[in-house]
Amino acid sequence: MSNLSIQPLSPLDGRYRAAVSDLGFHLSEAGLNRARIAVEIEWLIHLANRDLLGTSTSISEQEAAALRAIVTNFSDADVATLAETEATTKHDVKAVEYFIRGKLSELGRNDLLELTHFACTSEDINNLSYAITVRDSVKDVWLPRVEKLIAKLRELSAQYANNAMLSHTHGQPATPSTMGKELAVFVHRLERQIKRIEANEYLGKFSGATGTFSAHVVAAPSVNWPAESEAFVTGLGLTWNPLTTQIESHDWQAELYTAVSLFNGILHNLCTDIWTYISMGYFKQIPVPGATGSSTMPHKINPIRFENAESNLELSNAILGSLASTLITSRLQRDLTDSSSQRNIGLGLGHSLLAIDNVTRGLNEIDLSTAVLDADLSDNWEILGEAIQTVIRAEVAAGRSSISDPYALLKELTRGKRLSGDDMIAFVNELEIGQDAKDRLLTLRPHTYVGVAAELAARIQK
Fold first, then answer.
1. For the packed helices 406-414 and 385-397, what is the interaxial angle rounded to 10 degrees?
2. Is the whole-model pTM more than 0.85?
3. In the CATH hierarchy, which fold is given to the domain comprising 7-120?
4. Diameter of the chain by CA atoms?
5. Digit-coded pLDDT (tens) for 87-129
6. How far is it, in rounded angstroms, from Cα 288 to Cα 299?
């Protein structure tokens, strides 16, 4: 058979592997198995050293360290061993149990074999393992990349805080802003979602086949199993869920993926705006040495970073949206729809991470075209119509003018027209308003009609 048959099916594992490989440490099958082993070992230590079953068997600090080293030293050989065992068991968690039993025998602790996976359903192990791997991938990989992106956006916002630009509401010339203020809007929006993501809880259950501790109570009726479960789950750095079926209900996952999806959507909006600014000439792209924009048009520098990001954000949201809607439903006490779905968490976060990487790189490859911004402002003096009619209304309200319907007056002057600076100055000079107001309008220019945009941009600086 050709080697082409064993090439990566997903581009995240092929073409884009370098950008997302850090996620694989947590969210791959191997990463999940490493977490399963960690949970099984911690439960074994918890059972033995709290003597919950009255075995008078404990695990020394040295032995506990040796057991935990199985997790830290988890290797490709261990992955292969688990795969070989699972080929026989046809059950991934059972293969993990047998793997740990083998390690205990190697350590000379056969007396602990029956404490391995004690009173656990597979989902007790799996839900905690997924909570750990998702938590660590978000906190150790996804959020740090986001912080790099936000830092770059914040830097550009500060750099362009005073660079006036013509706004385009409905795609038409509108009241000017500054590029720094417009970028600050996205920093503010994205950071609100980051706070939601950072505050997300990672829940875990550890209560047996249907969430009732039934087998636990029969085996050791004097133990306060809910309290032991809570101590164990919180000891893993998770939030204990006391009321579940066989599975943890996955609501926290839906909450997290919904928040990430909203972050993705806002970032998608940034991409479409930057792409549009590039097409308008407001941003120029910095040529990358050796890069080719078109196979036939040598002059082109295509905004591929932002286009690639748009696509990956859409793919991420498709996957995360599906997970959020699927995972919150389980028939009665258990079905396996969540098992299949959760294997795609890495894809959902991976496409988001790839997009974040592309946007960050894209922002490093653009520069503001101040000459284009200036020319656009100079060609659109009619945008001052808003300012003029607003000043007239204030003058009328204060009794310093008797002009009737200032809005209609400026609408007649400006709507659908291009006016020069001379046209606007001549119009203002003829207005029946107070001299102070007239002086303000006569000195106003499209370039200076930006309100407190620079101060607003400064609000997101840390």
1. 160
2. yes
3. Fumarase C; Chain B, domain 1 (1.10.275)
4. 100
5. 999 999 999 999 999 999 999 999 999 999 999 999 999 999 9
6. 13
